Amino acid sequence: MDKDILSVEIGPGMGPRLDKALAAAVPEEASLSRSRLAKLIAEGSVTHDGAPVTDQKAKVAEGEIYQIALEPPKPVETVAQDIPLEVLWEDDDLIVVNKPAGMVTHPAPGSPEGTLVNALLHHFGGNLSGIGGEARPGIVHRIDKETSGLLVVAKSDRAHHGLAAQFEEHSVHRHYLAICHGVPDQADPRLRGLNGVSFETGGVLKIVTQLARHKTDRQKQAVVAHGGRHAVTRARVVEEFKGTAALIDCWLETGRTHQIRVHMAYAGHGLIGDPTYGGKRKISEKAVGAQVAQAVRDFPRQALHAATLGFIHPVTGEELSFTAPLPDDMEALLSQLRGAP
To answer: Considering Cα of 163, then 168, then 174, then 178, what sign does the dihedral take?
Structure first.
C-alpha cells in the first residue's frame, strides 16, 4: 500500500528533541497528535536524509527536513448497519445526534452490533476522515445505553483533538433532564448533613465527591472517601409532583461514568427506573394514586435524558448549541405524574 509522505522542516525554537520538534513543525491540517507522532517514530516511519530515526529524544537542528510516511486510514472491523439516526448537525468534521434509549454508544464484547458507531459507519457511507490512523468515528464522550439524548462525534482527526480538549477542560455545556424519587430540598436536614452536599443560590443542589469503581460490583460506581476521581454535579428542581417525585435539571462540571445516577442516589434521590442505583425507594401510592404509582414502578429505564449540548466548533470556532426534547416515554411519565389526583 502506497504511503503519503509529509515533509516538515524544523524551524527556530522547535528543538532540541525530535518528538517535540515534529509536534511543533507539522502543519495543523495534518492533525498529528503527539502520541501518534511518537508511534510513527517508533515504527520507523520518520526519516532524515533517507534513514529512519526511531529515537524520540534524538537531537534535531533548525533547518533539518524530516519525512513522515503516513498510511491511508485503515478500515475498521466494526460493520456498518442501516440503523436510523436523528441528526441535528453534520459537516465534514463532526456530527451531532440524538441517541435513543436502548442504543449502546460504542461496540463492546457484549454489544458488537446495533450501536451508534455501527449506525454512523453506514450513515457516513465511507465519507470519513482518519481518526488516529483509522477510518472510524471519533467518540469523545458517551452516554449510558438506557440514557437518551445528545452526542457529538468527530469525523476527522482535527475535530477529534479539538473536541477532546474541550471535554478535558470541562468547557462543554451539558444539561440533563431527569425524573427522581422525592424532591431535593435545601431545608432537608438530611441533605445538609451529607458530606459533599450543599446548596447554592436559587436552591441549586451541588454534589462534590470522589467516584470510583464499587468494591464488590465492578460494573457500578460508588462515592468513596479517598482516592477515585473528583466529580461535581449540580441540579435544580424544575417541577415537583406531590412531594414524591421531581423533574430535575442536572449539569456536569466533570464527566464521570454514571455520575448523575450515582450522585443523585447518594443524595437520596435516585432516578426513577434506574435498576442499578435507584435503590428501594418507592413512590407514594397515597400521594399519586395506584395507577400512577404503577406507571412509575414499571418505567423500564433510568429516567435520564441528555437534553442540551453546547461547544465551540473545533475547526470553525463557531459556538454551537443543541437541544433535544424529552423522548416519548419520559413525556408520558410526566403527563401521568401531572395528572395524579
So the answer is: positive
* Class of residue 292 by CB neighbours under 10 A (exposed 0-12, middle 13-18, buried 19+): buried
144 is catalytic: yes
Three-class secondary structure of residue 311 per DSSP: strand
Q: How far is CA 15 from CA 18, 247, 330, in A?
A: 7, 56, 57
Marked catalytic residue, from 144, 157, 185, 274: 144
For the CA atoms of the chain, what is the radius of gyration? 24
Considering only 18-27, 95-104, 131-140, 279-288, which range has the smallest mean pLDDT? 131-140
Exposure string for 197-236, b = 16+ CB within 10 A, e = fewer: bebeeeebbebbbbbbeeeeeeeebbbeeeebeebbbbbb
What is the DSSP pairing of strand 204-213 with strand 229-241?
A: antiparallel
Cα–Cα distances in angstroms (integers) from residue 187 to residues 87, 96, 115, 190, in the given order: 42, 40, 43, 9
Give me the amino acid identity at 226.
Answer: H
**60 has a pLDDT exceeding 80:** yes
- For residue 109, whether the previous peptide bond is cis, meaning omega lies within 30 degrees of 0, is no
- Dist CA 16 CA 64 (whole Å): 11
C-alpha cell at 192: 445538609
Q: Are 58 and 2 a contacting pair, CB within 8 Å?
A: no
Q: Which residues pair with 305 in a beta bridge?
A: 148, 177
- Cβ atoms 254, 230 nearer than 8 A: yes
Query: What is residue 72's predicted lDDT score, i.e. its pLDDT?
Result: 72
Phi, psi values for residue 278, rounded to 5°: -65, -25
Average pLDDT over residues 9-29: 82
Residue written as cell 524530516? Answer: 66
